[in-house]
Amino acid sequence: MVVKDQPLKAVCEILEKEYGIHFSYSRELVDLSRKVTVTAYQQRLRSLLEQLFAPEDIRFTRVGDQLVLQQIKRSTHTISGYVQDAVSGEKLPGATIYAPTLKQGTTTNQYGFFSLTTVKDSNSLIISYVGYEPALLPLDGQTNRILLVPLRPLASLQEVVVSGTDKTRLQDQTQMSKVHLPLAAVKSMPRLLGEADVMRTLQSMPGVGGGMDGVGGLHVRGGSPDQNLILMDGTPVFNFSHFFGVYSLLNAEMVKSADLYKGAFPARFGGRLSSVVDISLKDGDMRNYHGDVAVGMISAKINVEGPIVKDKTSFIVSARRSYPDLLYNAAANMEDDAGNKGTVYAYFYDVNVKVNHIFSPKDRIFLSLYKGEDNLSIKGMVDSTADQAGRITENSRFQLGWGNTIGAIRWNHIYNTRLFSNVSANYSQYAFKTEYGFQYNMPSTGQASDLYGKYFSRMKNVGVKIDFDYRPTPNHAIRFGAAGIAHYFKPGLMDLADKGPNPVIPLDTMKKGLDIRGTEMLLYGEDDWRLTENLYANIGVHLSGFLVEGRFYHSLQPRLGLRYMLPHNWAVKASYTHMNQYIHLLSNNGTSLPTDIWVPSTQRVAPMLSRQVAAGIAKTSTNGVFEFSLEGYYKAMYNMIEYVNNNSILTSNLERWDENVALGKGWSYGGEAMIRKQKGSTTGWIGYTLAWSTRQFPDINQGRIFPYKYDHRHDVEIVLTQQIGKHWEASASWHFTTGSPLTLPVSSYHGAGTASPWDPGSGVDVSVDRYGGRYNYRAENVHRLDVGISHTKQKKHWSRTWNLSVFNVYNQKNPFIYYMKRDEEEKQRYLSKVTVMPILPSITYSIKF
User: Fold this and answer.
1) Which range marks the domain in which residue 113 is found?
2) Both 53 and 85 in a single domain?
3) How many domains does the chain have?
C-alpha cells in the first residue's frame, strides 16, 4: 500500500476495504484529519497500525470485529519568551517558532514575544528570522520561565536574502492582503537621491500607488491618502512625507520592520478604510556602541545607538537634514527672459530618539520621540515697464512649512507564559503654515499696496491603549484590548490684509477658524483559531464610538478571515472586513498636498464606512525559492465627501465646510497577482494590478457614476536585486501605471470683461469654461525606471559603502500637474503639463562603525 499526503481518515477507509475490519471512534475525541504518507509492502496489520497511530497519540484496541480508537491524553507545557539579535539584544518581530513534533508553530508579536504550547516530550523548537541563522532550541528544563532566544545575524551580503525557511510560508498564514517588509528588503531597493525608503518600497507592491512624481501619498485599492492608518511604534502619523513625497518621514536606519495590510484587517486595527501601515522602530543596542553616517548630494544623516546600562537600558538617536538651502543658493537665484527674478529655499530635518529599559524579565518600558519639519520659501521680483508714465515694481514672497511632533511611552508586561500585555500612551501633532506677501508700487498713479496673507492649520491626538496577547492552547491565539483617543482639530485660521498706504483694492481682514474636539473609544477582540487540520479562521470584532459636537456615532465592525489548505500545499483564503473612519481630509481637487486639512465628522457629515470582501490563493514553493499569490477584492464605501461647484480649501468658509461638500458612495474592485523570488543571488518580484475605482454623488456630475481620481486601470511593478560577489549589489525597479482621470472643460468662451467693480471702464480678457462632467478625461500613462548599485567594503573596525542611484533613467516626462494654456496667435487653448522629476542621479557615501 502506498499513500501520499492523505488524511488519516482516508487511510482507515482503505484499510477497512482491504482487511475487512471496521474502525470505531468518537469524532469529537479522536482527530483523524492529519495528513500522513505511508509505504507498506507485506507488512503485518498490527505493525502497520502502530506506524499510523503512534505518532498521533492514538491507541487501538480490538473489541470483537472492531478496532476501537482512543486518543491518548498527553500532558503539555507552554514555552514563552523573546527572540532577539544575539549581538545587539534587539527584539525580532515576526520570527518563526516551529515545533516539528506537533507540526505547529507561531510567530513573535511586534515586541518579539512568543508563546507556544507543546507536549511535554517534545524535544526541540526551530527558531528562524529573515537575515539570521536559524537556531535549534532544546526544551529540556526550559518550561515555566521566560526564555531569551538569541539568533546570530548572517555574516555577508550574499547571505542576507529572504529565505523560504526563514519565515512563515504564505500558505501557513491565515492573514491575507498583507505585506511584511524587513529592513533588508527596504535597503535592497534602488535609492532615490541615495535614500532607502519604506514608503517607496511599499508603493512597489500590487494594489498600492504613490501618486504622481513629486507628490506624496499612498493610494491603496482605490482609496484616498487619508484612508491609510500609518502607525509609528503604535502612534498615528498624519503626513508621512518630506519634500513633497521625495523622502519619507522616517530615516530607514530607524526601521526594524513594516507591515502593510491592504484588506482583511485584524480587529485590533480601526479608524481607516483602505490600509494599515504598522512600522516598528529599532530599540537600540543593549551591548555595544555603534552607528552610521551618510552624506549625499542634498542630505546627510547620522544614527547612533548603544547601551546606557549594559543589558539593561539602551538608546538610539537618528538625525537627518537636507541642505539645498545651504549649498545651492546661487543656483536657486533665477531670472527668466522677461527679467523676472526669484530665489528658492527649501530644506527639511527630522530627529528620532528612543530609549528602552528592562525593569525585570517580565517588564520593559519604551520612550519614543520624533520631531520633523519641512520649509519652502520662494522670493521673487518683477520690474517691468507698465506705461509711458512710469514703471511698476512688484515683490513677492511665499513660505510653506509643515511638520510632525510625536511622542509615546509603552510598557510591556508578561503575566505568565500564556498572557502578554502592552500599555501605551501617545501624542501626535501635525501642523502646517503658509505665509504670502506681495508688494506693488506704481509711481505714475500713486497706487501702492502691501498684501499679507497667512493660513494655519493643526491637528493633534492624545491616546491611551491597552493590548493583550493570550495563547491558551496551540489552536488559539487571542488578542483583545481597549483604547481612548482625544482628537483636537484647528482646521484653518486665515488672515488677509493690505497694509499699504493706498491700497489698489480695499481689503478686509478675514479670519476663519474652528476649534473642534472629538473623543473616540474602542474595544476589540480577535482569535486566530485552528478549526480543523485544514481549516483556520481569524474571527474578530471591533466596537468603536465617536463623540463630537454633542452627537455620538457608534459602529460594530465584524472581521473574518478564512484559510483552507488544499493538496500540494496550496491555500485558499477569503475575508470580510467592515471599517469605520471618523475623520476626513479636505483636499483640493487634484493632488494631495501638505496644505490639505483634517476635519472630524459633524452633525451633517457622518463617518465614512466600508465593507470589503476578498478571496485568493497563495503558495510558497517546496524549496522556498518562489512565492505566488493571487487576490480579488470588492470594496463598497459610504459617506464619501467631495467639494461641490469646484470649491476648494482656500475658497470655502471652513466654519461651515460641511455645507460645501457632497456626500456619496464609492466602489473599488479588482485583482492583484504577484510572483516573488526569495532565494539565490537574484531576488525580486513582479506584481500586476487590474483595478477600478468609482464614485457617485447626488449633487455632482448629475448624479452619474464617474471614475475617481485614484482610478488606475493597470499597474505593473518589476523589482530585481542582484548580488555580485561579496561586495557589490545592483538593483532596478520599473513602474507602469495607467493615467489618472482629470476634469477638463469641454468648451470655453473667451472675450472682454471688466477688470474691477471700482473701475467699470477698465477692460480685460476673460475666459469662461463649461464642464461636461467630473473626471471626464484620462491623463497620459506614467512609467519610470530606477537603478542603483552599491559597493560595500569591510574594514577592521568599520565598513564603508558607496551608492550610485539614478532615478528616472530614461528621463520620462511624467506629469506633475496639468493646466490649460492659451496660444494668443492661434487664438486657441490647449492642455499643457508640468514635469518636476526628471532624471536624477545621486551619489551617497556612508560608513558604519
Assistant:
1) 74-158
2) no
3) 3
**CATH number (domain holding residue 20):** 3.55.50.30
Question: How many C-alpha atoms does 283 have within 13 Å on its Cβ side?
Answer: 26
Report the 10 Å Cβ neighbour count for 659: 12
56 and 153 part of one domain: no
CATH of the domain at 90: 2.60.40.1120
Does residue 762 form part of some domain? no
pLDDT digits 0-9 by tens, 688-707: 999 999 999 988 888 889 89
User: What is the spatial distance between Cα 163 and Cα 680, in angstroms, rounded to a whole number?
Assistant: 9
Q: What is the mean pLDDT of residues 604-627?
A: 89
Q: What is the Cα–Cα distance from 81 to 150, expressed in whole angstroms?
A: 11
Which positions ≥6 away from 550 have C-beta within 8 Å?
A: none
Dist. CA 524–CA 480, nearest whole Å: 5
Beta bridge partners of 785: 734
Answer yes or no: is 216 within a domain: no
**Cα–Cα distance, 284 to 289 (Å, whole number):** 9
Band (pLDDT 50/70/90 cuts) for residue 480 is very high
Beta-bridge mates of residue 44: none
SS (H, E, C) 74-97: CCEEEEEEEEEECCCCCECCCCEE
Query: How far is C-alpha 322 from the chain's CA centre?
Result: 24
Residues 128, 153: one domain? yes
Are both 79 and 52 inside the same structural domain? no
Q: What are phi and psi of 251, to 5 degrees?
A: -65, 125
Q: Does residue 469 fall inside a structural domain?
A: yes
Residues making up the chain, counted from first to last: 849
Burial of 716 (0-12, 13-18, 19+ CB in 10 A): middle
**66 and 78 share a domain?**
no
Q: Are the C-beta atoms of 368 and 353 separated by less than 8 Å?
A: yes
Residues 126, 55 share a domain: no
pLDDT band at 149 (very low <50, low <70, confident <90, very high): confident
pLDDT tens by residue, 12-31: 888 888 777 888 887 777 77
pTM for this prediction: 0.82
Clarify whether residues 127 and 270 are in a common domain: no
pLDDT tens track for 565-576: 888 888 899 999
| Dist. CA 209–CA 207, nearest whole Å | 7
